[in-house]
DNA sequence: AACTCCGCCAACCGCGGCCTC
DNA sequence: AGAGGCCGCGGTTGGCGGAGT
């Protein structure tokens, strides 16, 4: 027989785990009644077997006297809710707090802090009589000195009869991971997928899990999920190249501004009352995820921590993790790679794009959102893990590869350079595919030294969001980069129809063009360009860029188009040129 | 036993969307 | 159209309790 200790004085919430212990699941509302029953018997220990969960929902119109966690409270209980509140507050541990905020109830200042069982009972009673919603009326009509928000939160997180309290089961943990992989930090959506669980629970679980794993230097997601989503990405996001240049630019260079633009455009609305439109954002994940993560069971909870010890420094590029602050609005390290298009391109994508999938429809916003939120992983991680395997290089190579295919003969990109680049890309991709996580520990790029340092000055590129304040704090250059990007994006009126024309705005395209290469030739005029380039891509970029530029300039379809002489401070010219393409 | 550190989690806060007037 | 209220979501905070020293 299990007993619930009633020594707790800070509300019911901390009783819940005890109640939940074992397979028994009862609601907190039921616990209210339990406590009431226990108070009547004046027992300090309540036998669980005596609990009756069936009565949790039906509350009497006038709550009978009930226990407020202490015998003193019991003796002070009256049938009047406000009196109960007063007594409860006087006896509750939050009395100091309550007194510190002034008069309680009756239109006075609203109480804050932990809920007492008396308040819980009042709220439960009110909801049972009037139903959910109209939370501001609770305070008016029930005597509770709590704001509507607080009432709603308390009800939703603790008093709802259909809540499942207690620790997450391994199955639920797996589900959370999968859902997070699919949705990012959409806790409410995740909670909707997990009946009986609240967004707060899930959020807390995730945050603590992230912290734990971060401390352990382990990846957030088990390799299986990474692999599954990676594969998923292959069959989902084949049309990214068709995304307007503005989007890619925003993606590629990221920033608080362009990022927000992108997210406002690409992320589904916060609310999705109408439907679960995103049910199939990642069909493979969504549908019977266990099928897609067959090996995940071997990583219950922290089981996967046993794996990938090889990645001693996980996601060094993730500023969130680096900071020990897991903040949210960014997708998780790999659920958030809107920053660089290159990081979004899986090897398979590159392959599929390279081989051309012209019929591929433009992804829906949701799918794009999914792409941004969930994908990338090995590559992004390897990118971030590997100083030698910058995503930028892949972007350049990819772009070269893509241009070769998409432009066909019109743009003769089938030069040796392109072939070499494509081969290198294939090689790199193959390497990535084969080595998977191992690459993290020893990511020897087939391209040897590369643009490794390109992004070293701006870590967010390797898998984090730009919209975090601390990212700016740590990487002040990002601000300047953002400004440059903003400037570019605002200077040129980009629309989807001109996406191809505006391709030159894509950073990878820029890299492949001779814009940068010519910068030195034009002397001081292009100091701005140099600065911008350095700002955008990091100081170390220059050296690496020369190589890239040299590579690309040789075939330089861009050069033929005459856009090689554009400078960042003359974007109107660039726009004009784009129109003439 | 006393103290500190850390994890967990309930609750608060700010923001933004929706709805009504 | 827009102002205000309501509601929900996501991020953050602070308290509690357990573990470690």
TrEMBL record:
Q: Which GO terms describe its cellular component?
A: nucleus
Question: What positions does the domain HTH myb-type occupy?
Answer: 110-159, 160-214
Q: Which SMART domains match?
A: SANT
Q: Which CDD domains does its entry note?
A: SANT
Say yes or no: keyword Amino-acid biosynthesis present.
Answer: no
Q: Which domain of life, per UniProt?
A: Eukaryota
- Where does this protein chiefly localize? nucleus
Q: Where in the cell is it found?
A: Nucleus
Looking at the keywords, is Nucleotide-binding present?
Answer: no
Q: Compositional bias of type Low complexity: which residue ranges?
A: 351-367
What name does UniProt use for this protein?
Transcription factor GAMYB
Species, as recorded: Camellia sinensis (Tea plant)
Origin organism lineage: Eukaryota, Viridiplantae, Streptophyta, Embryophyta, Tracheophyta
């Amino acid at each position: 027989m299990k007993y619930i200790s009633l020594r707790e004085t800070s509300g019911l919430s901390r009783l819940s785990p005890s109640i939940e212990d074992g397979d028994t699941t009862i609601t907190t509302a039921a616990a209210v009644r339990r406590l009431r029953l226990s108070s009547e018997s004046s027992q300090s220990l309540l036998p669980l077997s005596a609990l009756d969960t069936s009565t949790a929902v039906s509350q009497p119109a006038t709550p009978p006297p009930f226990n407020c966690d202490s015998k003193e409270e019991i003796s002070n209980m009256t049938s009047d809710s406000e009196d109960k509140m007063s007594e409860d507050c006087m006896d509750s541990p939050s009395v100091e707090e309550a007194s510190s905020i002034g008069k309680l109830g009756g239109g006075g200042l609203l109480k804050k802090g932990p809920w007492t069982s008396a308040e819980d009972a009042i709220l439960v009673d009110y909801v049972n009589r009037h139903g959910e919603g109209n939370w501001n009326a609770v305070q008016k009509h029930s005597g509770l000195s709590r704001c509507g928000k607080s009432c709603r939160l308390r009800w939703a997180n603790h008093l709802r009869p259909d809540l499942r309290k207690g620790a997450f089961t391994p199955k639920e943990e797996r589900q959370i991971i999968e859902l997070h992989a699919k949705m990012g930090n959409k806790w409410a959506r995740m909670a909707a997928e997990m009946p009986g669980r609240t967004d707060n629970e899930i959020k807390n679980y995730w945050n603590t899990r992230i912290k734990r794993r971060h401390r352990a230097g382990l990846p957030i997601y088990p390799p299986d999920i990474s692999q599954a989503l990676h594969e998923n990405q292959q069959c989902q996001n084949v049309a990214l190249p068709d995304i307007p240049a503005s989007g890619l630019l925003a993606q590629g260079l990221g920033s608080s501004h362009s990022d927000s633009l992108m997210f406002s455009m690409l992320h589904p609305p916060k609310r999705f009352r109408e439907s679960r439109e995103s049910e199939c954002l990642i069909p493979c994940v969504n549908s019977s995820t266990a099928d897609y993560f067959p090996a995940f069971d071997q990583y219950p909870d922290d089981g996967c921590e046993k794996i990938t010890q090889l990645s001693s420094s996980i996601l060094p590029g993730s500023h969130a993790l680096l900071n020990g602050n897991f903040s949210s609005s960014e997708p998780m390290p790999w659920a958030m790679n809107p920053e660089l298009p290159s990081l979004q391109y899986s090897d398979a994508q590159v392959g599929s794009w390279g081989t051309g999938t012209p019929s591929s429809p433009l992804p829906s916003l949701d799918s794009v959102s999914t792409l941004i939120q969930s994908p990338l992983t090995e590559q992004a991680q390897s990118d971030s893990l590997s100083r030698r395997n910058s995503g930028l290089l892949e972007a350049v190579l990819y772009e070269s590869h893509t241009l070769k295919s998409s432009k066909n003969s019109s743009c003769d990109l089938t030069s040796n350079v392109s072939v070499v680049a494509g081969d290198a890309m294939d090689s790199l991709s193959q390497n990535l595919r084969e080595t998977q996580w191992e690459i993290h520990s020893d990511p020897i790029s087939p391209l040897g030294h590369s643009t490794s340092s390109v992004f070293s000055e701006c870590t967010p590129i390797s898998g984090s969001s730009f919209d975090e304040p601390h990212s700016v704090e740590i990487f002040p250059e990002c601000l300047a980069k953002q400004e440059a990007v903003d400037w570019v994006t605002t200077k040129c009126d980009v629309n989807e129809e001109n996406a191809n024309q505006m391709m030159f705005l894509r950073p990878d395209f820029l890299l492949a063009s001779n814009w940068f290469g010519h910068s030195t030739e034009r002397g001081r005029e292009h100091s701005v360009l140099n600065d911008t380039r350095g700002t955008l891509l990091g100081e170390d970029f220059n050296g690496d860029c020369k190589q890239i530029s040299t590579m690309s300039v040789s075939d330089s379809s861009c050069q033929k188009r005459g856009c090689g002489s554009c400078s960042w401070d003359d974007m109107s010219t660039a726009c004009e040129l784009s129109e003439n393409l």
